[in-house]
Design a protein that fits this description.
This protein is about 20% helix and about 40% strand. The protein is α+β, with helices and mostly antiparallel strands. It has two domains: about 45 residues; about 325 residues, Neuraminidase (6 Propeller). The strands form six sheets. Strands 20-21-22-23-1-26-25-24 form an eight-stranded mixed beta sheet, with helices on one face. The protein has a four-stranded antiparallel beta sheet with strand order 2-3-4-5, with no helix packed on it. Strands 8-9-10-11 form a four-stranded antiparallel beta sheet, with no helix packed on it. It is globular, with a radius of gyration of 27 Å.
């Protein structure tokens, strides 16, 4: 007890002496001391603070319609894209049938556009399909590196050859594709595939890109947003149709990236255990709604070894708003109809590679529920 009391007295005298010396020091010395103390206190407590969420709440997606593509008169088991015209008809890219299947509102296949082959209006591997305006259909063939234009009646119009995988999207009558010029990002065409110009430059984006980066874009009246999906973190570059670079956004809300890192680690471990080859893309694509918000499709792995989609929604400046949950599986080719409902191609397949259901689903987006 005596030794403990002596140690206590020594410490007390030392602390009093230190405080007295600090009090006798110049004002700038005291200010510097308190600044250093505040800095080390903030570093020490940083790990104890909770990160602010990337979104202010969670929105639920409610399924209101499902079309099982395996139950069509021409069953589809492999597809990654579809689109819809103003009449509600669905256009489904079918690599296995080497054509585009037209499905009416009752779920019946009414027409086939294109056929197998390498000539005009023929396909080897049609992957991406998009409606342009009210009367045209644009199809990207990954097997031929070709984009073809048709009328919705099935009449072939024109084709453009590429030297790489031609991704595409449409905005009204304007068609955006992967650029044929290696120095550019996006080529712009009209609905008849008449070339209108190129947008973007690799000079600005090259330091952040890897070889083989996938480019996807959303178009507006005078602006194009390009999503670079195979870089970390994913990035969106914004360009005017005149070619001027406007902005660059990195999708890095802290909690979103934290969740992505955790899911990526779990997915990599599970893929290795199951012997699944290839790299999983975690940010798969994005779509712009009628309010100008961007819906970024993020794929993550469930404990039951299934991949599911969650959409992170951003405003026009890519500030996070909320996230959308409630999907049954991974979703592809999202788009909104005139009523604001979200249509997706949804696959309910496990990671192991077994065949699962492939459905076209329509979701109603419910009101926001705060965390």
């Amino acid at each position: 007890m005596t030794q403990a009391k002596e140690v206590s007295d020594v410490l007390s005298r030392s602390s009093k002496g230190a405080l007295q010396r600090l009090g006798d020091s110049p004002a700038w010395y005291r200010l510097l001391f308190f600044l250093f103390a505040a800095f080390f206190a903030s570093v020490f407590t940083a790990g104890c603070r909770r990160e602010a969420p990337a979104a202010s709440g969670v929105v639920r997606a409610e399924l209101i319609r499902r079309i099982n593509l395996a139950e069509l008169s021409s069953p589809v088991y492999r597809s990654s894209s579809f689109d819809q015209d103003c009449q509600g008809n669905l256009y489904v890219a079918s690599p296995e049938h080497q054509c585009i299947l037209v499905v009416d509102t009752s779920g019946t296949v009414t027409q086939r556009i294109g056929s197998a082959g390498r000539g005009p209006g023929e396909f080897v591997e049609p992957i991406v399909v998009a409606v342009a305006g009210d009367s045209h259909l644009i199809v990207s063939d990954f097997g031929l590196f070709r984009i073809s234009a048709f009328r919705l009646s099935g009449e072939f119009i024109a084709a453009v050859d590429f030297h790489c995988t031609p991704w595409l999207s449409t905005a009204g009558r304007t068609v955006f594709t992967t650029s044929r010029d290696v120095r550019r990002l996006v080529d712009v065409f009209d609905e008849n595939l008449i070339f209108r110009g190129s947008v973007g430059s690799y000079v600005l984006t090259q330091p952040f890109l890897r070889i083989g980066s996938a480019l996807q874009c959303c178009g507006g009246a005078d602006t194009v947003w390009v999503l670079h999906t195979r870089i970390t973190p994913p990035e969106v570059s914004v360009w005017t149709l005149g070619g001027r670079h406007v902005a660059r956004y990195r999708l890095t809300p802290r909690s979103m990236m934290r969740n992505m890192a955790l899911k990526e680690a779990a997915l990599a471990a599970e893929s290795k255990r199951l012997g699944v080859s290839g790299n999983w893309q975690h940010v798969d694509g994005f779509v712009r709604d009628v309010h100008g918000r961007f819906w970024v499709n993020y794929l993550w792995l469930e404990p039951r070894k299934r991949i599911r989609s969650v959409y992170y929604v951003f405003d026009s400046s890519f500030q996070p708003l909320f996230r959308v949950e409630g999907f049954s599986g991974l979703t592809l080719s999202p788009h909104f109809d005139v009523s604001g409902r979200l249509w997706v191609l949804e696959a309910e397949a496990p990671v192991g590679g077994e065949k699962g259901d492939l459905n076209i689903c329509c979701y109603r987006i419910l009101g926001k529920k705060e965390k």
